[in-house]
Amino acid sequence: MKKRFFTFITIVTTSACVLFILSSWGMWGHQHITKSAIFALPDELRIFFYNHLDFVVEESNVPDLRKYTLSDKAENPRHYIDIEHFGSIDSLPLTSKLAYAKYENKKLQSDGILPWYIQDVMVKLTKSMQGNRKTEILFLASDLGHYLADANMPLHTSSNHNGQLTNQAGIHAFWEAQLPEMFGNNYNVYTGNARYIEDVTKETWRIIRHSHQLADTLLAKDRDLRKTFPADKIFQKDANGKIARNKFNQPVYTKEYADLYHKALNGMIENQFREAISAAANFWYTAWVNAGKPDLKSLDDEGLTKRNKANYKKDIKAWEKGKLTVLKSETEF
Question: Which stretches are annotated as coiled coil (predicted)?
Answer without folding.
Answer: none
